[in-house]
Specification:
The chain has helices at 6-15, 32-36, 50-70, 104-121, 131-139, 152-161, 202-211, 333-349, and strands at residues 21-22, 80-82, 196-198, 215-222, 228-230, 232-233, 240-252, 257-261, 273-277, 286-290, 297-309, 316-320, 324-328, 352-357, 362-368. With 369 residues, the chain is α+β, with helices and mostly antiparallel strands. The protein is globular and about 70 Å long. Strands 2, 3, 4, 6, 7, 8, 9 and 10 form an eight-stranded mixed beta sheet that branches. A five-stranded mixed beta barrel has the order 11-12-13-15-14. Strands 1-5 form a two-stranded antiparallel sheet.
Length: 369
């Protein structure tokens, strides 16, 4: 297919009644092979082809719209949500650049897990996990590389069963390698997830994002996407270039779009992010979320600003500054009573506290200062 010039793309956008902006940016000026190197999602052995995934997403979008018009939609999630600004706090880690290697699955997966960690441990918590470990080690062991890409479910399984080390343990470079550059103590530095779920349908994806956090999604990339600058992307090209995985960090019902964190550096789109319309390019067909991050962790020098309980046996929560609500461990009566008493005292006198949060996301240890 002959390469379009930027004017033809802009005219196609206008003729289709879309409003997104296209420009002759650094990606548009690349050769087709260079562009393709920035992708990397390959449908897995049990996945439908990209074109079928697109049709399924479009059908689900039409059903979603029909349900809205019929008044049957259950509005369990807010009409808009963005983890880059939730209550004034940013739970999304900085945009990275996969560069000339088809490792997008690793970047999309890690972006979602990094945000899950920040949601669990506080927006100020610093986390930077190793895409190189996930791709050059775990994907590599399955015969995957920069040229043939990977699929998201296997990435989630790797996170669950093996774990992923931090970036400092194995810094990313966009070239195939035999997992020889990771640190010697990598096994002691991995982060694991408790499990994962495939999330189906617009309503379910919105619900997951609003209640649990950003989520990985894969979609078909068409030639016009490389010229994207801003706005809500809707394809006008028929030149399918391949599959790509990203992280959905929010959405807007008013604009009917997903807000996505890309892995092409901050020079792409809206400072490394882009928006894409519901039902576009199969965006809802391959969506995976991490359930929770495994392991206890410490939260230090925080204030207790709220307490809540109901009539259920040993059911109480504390609101920790900069963190949010955390349930108080209810393993036994004495421990539960002591924790509630100490948290109440800290709230009353305004003391700072150090906490240990266990693997079930409950407050298990408390030190009051």
């Amino acid at each position: 297919m002959a390469k379009q010039n930027i004017k033809e793309i802009q005219e196609a956008i206008a003729n289709a009644g879309h409003s997104w902006q296209a420009s002759e940016n650094q990606f548009f000026r690349m050769s087709d092979q260079e562009k393709d190197n920035f992708l990397g999602y390959t449908p897995g052995p049990n996945d439908e082809p990209l074109e079928v995934q697109e049709r399924i997403s479009a059908e689900n979008y039409n059903a979603f719209k029909a349900s809205l018009l019929a008044g049957n939609q259950e509005f369990t999630a807010p009409a808009q949500f963005d983890w880059r600004n939730n209550g004034g706090l940013n739970y999304v880690t900085p945009v990275k650049n996969q560069s000339s290697c088809g490792s997008c699955v690793a970047f999309g997966t890690i972006a979602s897990v990094e945000s899950r960690i920040k949601i669990q441990r506080g927006a100020a918590f610093n986390v930077d996990l190793s895409e190189a470990h996930l791709f050059h080690c775990i994907a590599r062991s399955q015969g995957r590389n920069c040229s043939n890409g990977w699929w998201p479910e296997n990435a989630m399984i790797g996170f669950r069963d093996i774990g992923v080390a931090d970036e400092a343990c194995y810094p990313y470079t966009p070239a195939d390698q035999n997992c020889t550059n990771r640190c010697a103590d990598w096994a002691n530095r991995v982060t694991k997830i408790s499990g994962y779920a495939k999330v189906n349908g617009i309503s379910a994806i919105k619900e997951w994002i609003a209640s649990k956090g950003p989520i990985e999604a894969c979609f078909s990339v068409y030639a016009d996407f490389y010229s994207y600058t801003s706005g809500v992307y809707k394809k006008t090209s028929n030149d399918l270039r391949g599959g790509h995985c990203v992280c959905i960090v929010g959405y807007s019902d008013a604009l009917e779009c997903w807000i996505c964190k890309n892995s092409w550096g901050t020079g792409f789109g809206e400072s490394g992010f882009f928006r894409i319309g519901y039902g576009q390019c199969g965006i809802e067909a391959q969506v995976y979320g991490a359930n929770s991050v495994v392991g206890s962790y410490d939260i230090n020098a925080k204030k207790v600003t709220g307490l809540w309980a109901n009539n259920e046996n040993r059911n109480a929560w504390a609101y920790i500054s900069d963190i949010g609500w955390k349930k108080i461990s209810n393993n036994n009566d004495i421990g539960f009573t002591n924790l509630v008493t100490d948290l109440a005292t800290a709230k009353t006198v305004g003391s700072t506290v150090n906490l240990t949060i266990d693997e079930t996301e409950m407050i298990s240890v408390l030190y009051v200062f």
